[in-house]
UniProtKB/TrEMBL annotation:
InterPro entries: Acyl-CoA_dehydrogenase (IPR050741), Acyl-CoA_Oxase/DH_mid-dom_sf (IPR046373), AcylCoA_DH/ox_N (IPR013786), AcylCoA_DH/ox_N_sf (IPR037069), AcylCoA_DH/oxidase_NM_dom_sf (IPR009100)
Lineage: Bacteria, Bacillati, Actinomycetota, Actinomycetes, Micromonosporales
Acyl-CoA dehydrogenase/oxidase N-terminal domain sequence ranges: 6-101
CC per GO annotation: cytoplasm
Full protein name: Acyl-CoA dehydrogenase/oxidase N-terminal domain-containing protein
Length: 340
């Protein structure tokens, strides 16, 4: 089989979905699931090795959201290494990451608005990281964390503004680096107990003077420019919700009524959305996932509340997607939709 989309559909329907209830109940993703995605070439998706990534994610999320969620965290590191402009990083990391021989997670909590949760301090040979990064997924299933931190403007640091050529205000810098996902004296974790996708092994990571060598830094960027870059990720996040909605709709069959058409329209809107329109489109996808899952629950009746039924799992996963990766504009749009 050479068609990536058909390959993703087959993996989702024949492997991931039949095991999804057990994964949900045990809180453990079989290593074979991630190995299968690596063997299919899907770990190289962010490097352009797989066509139609949004649909690939959608199909896999409709099979097992927990497995897809862990796998999806990997791609930020792949893209960062590929775009780093550093031959040393590309040579050492890109091939193994794309083949799934090295697997990555993300620790991006420091990029949230407000005071940074993780600070980067320049030291000889690299940076020292201090602080807490919440919501780090895939602990124990990843080799490295693509970690963000913010470097405070240095004393006396004034940057030249392009418009005037004069000295402007000091600029806070965001840095990204590949940090080994290994606990120790300067890196510790606290597991988080989630009501959905708990098998994702999501933890809170604490850095206490953790050293990162300069050769592990993938990028630096003025923090103020992070927002525009972050918005681009909303399209792919929407595929998680479309996957959950699609699975509920397929389980409903003829009882789905107008939901299949809504799913197609929601996907088309996400595909066509300009950056400013993505928050509303992403919110609509999450709202549809919840509505499709609750429709399945009502249609199936009392048995839906049994642990062995997919409806209760999909409702909890849809709830998770109402808040996962949310941004102020997404939250505002969702509040409008769910309060109608």
């Amino acid at each position: 089989m050479t068609d990536p989309l058909e390959k993703a559909r087959q993996i989702a329907d024949d492997v991931l979905f039949p095991a999804a209830l057990e994964v949900d109940a045990t809180g453990v993703i079989p290593a074979a699931h991630l190995d299968l995605l690596a063997g299919a070439g899907f770990y190289g998706m962010a490097a352009g090795q797989v066509a139609d990534p949004p649909r690939i994610v959608e199909w896999l999320a409709g099979g097992c959201l927990a497995t897809t969620f862990v796998w999806m965290q990997h791609h930020g590191a792949v893209r960062a290494v590929a775009d780093s402009g550093r031959p040393d990083l590309v040579e050492q990391w890109l091939g193994p990451l794309c083949r799934g021989e090295r697997r990555a997670g993300v620790a991006l909590g420091a990029l949230r608005p407000g005071p940074p949760s993780v600070r980067a301090t320049p030291v000889d040979g690299g940076y020292r990281l201090d602080g807490i990064s919440p919501w780090v997924t895939g602990w124990g299933m990843t080799d490295v964390l693509h970690t963000a931190a913010r470097e405070a403007p240095r004393t006396g640091d004034a940057r030249v503004t392009p418009r005037t050529g004069g000295a402007g205000p000091a600029v806070e810098t965001a840095i990204w680096a590949l940090v080994d996902a290994v606990p120790g004296a300067t890196l510790s974790v606290r597991p988080l107990d989630l009501v959905a996708v708990n098998a994702s092994a999501t933890v809170e990571v604490t850095f206490d003077g953790h050293f990162v060598p300069a050769e592990r830094v993938t990028a630096t960027l003025p923090y103020a420019r992070w927002g525009a870059r972050d918005a681009a990720g909303l399209r792919m996040n929407g595929s998680f919700a479309l996957g959950v909605a699609g699975r509920a709709i397929r389980l409903l069959g003829e009882r789905a009524l107008a939901l299949p058409a809504e799913l197609d329209a929601c996907r088309a809107t996400l595909d066509a959305a300009a950056p400013d329109d993505l928050p509303a489109a992403r919110a609509a996808a999450s709202e549809l996932a919840m509505r499709a899952a609750t429709t399945l629950t009502v249609a199936e009746g009392a048995r839906s509340v049994l642990r062995g039924h997919h409806a209760q799992r999909l409702v909890r996963e849809a709830m998770f997607l109402l808040v996962f990766g949310s941004r102020p504009l997404v939250k505002s749009a969702l509040l409008t939709l769910v309060s109608r």
